[in-house]
């Protein structure tokens, strides 16, 4: 019941933000790492939301935050398939994993902001890398994007919501997140898609 109750609270918060004038962007995967799922006692990834009030373009100046490098998918006309990919950086509050699942979901899974790179009509992002201040920190090889779309769709359907054509989903962290400090630059490069960068001023 905790996931169901928390998801209802999350969707209520989303409706409130949209009522204040934000536009829907799509959804986010929370906790795509099995080890964290086991720690939280959940049976799969969670779903949060994205709206234009948290969309940023290249700069951030609030701390403490961590940066998660992710692949974003854009949902096709059938409401389920992947029509395009984008590199994405999500900025989140440092996760407090001792909170109850209801609290985590009601707070939109620690989400603060998201930045997208170029949109490319492909279903394969290719290999990539994460750089911090120009130094490669992690090579990445994204996979499992369809499974993450299915996981988000299932969570939303269970709550009476659903995916729509054009929705974007950030599909979960590709490597350990970076704890940002003033002056940092974090960049995700994906071979078949392009790059996205956030500077911390």
How is this fold's topology laid out?
Blueprint: H1 2-19, E1 24-30, H2 34-40, E2 46-51, E3 59-60, E4 66-75, E5 82-92, H3 101-106, E6 111-116, E7 128-132, E8 135-140, H4 145-158, E9 168-170, E10 178-179, E11 185-190, E12 194-200
Explained architecture:
The protein is an alpha+beta fold and 201 residues long. The chain is 22% helix and 35% strand. It is built from 4 helices and 12 strands. The strands form 2 sheets. Strands 1, 2, 4, 5, 6, 9 and 10 form a 7-stranded mixed beta sheet that branches. It has a 5-stranded mixed beta sheet with strand order 3-12-11-7-8, with no helix packed on it. A hairpin with a 3-residue loop joins β11 (185-190) and β12 (194-200). The mean pLDDT is 97.
Number of strands: 12
Can you tell me the residue ranges where pLDDT is under 50 for at least 5 consecutive residues?
Answer: none
Tell me the structural class. Answer: alpha+beta
Identify the overall geometry. Answer: globular
Task: Indicate the mean pLDDT.
Answer: 97
Summed up, the helix count is 4
Percent of residues in beta strands?
35-45%
- End-to-end gap: 41 Å
Instruction: Evaluate the radius of gyration.
Output: 16 Å
Helix content estimate: 10-25%
Q: Helix and strand succession?
A: HEHEEEEHEEEHEEEE
Largest sheet data: 7 strands, mixed
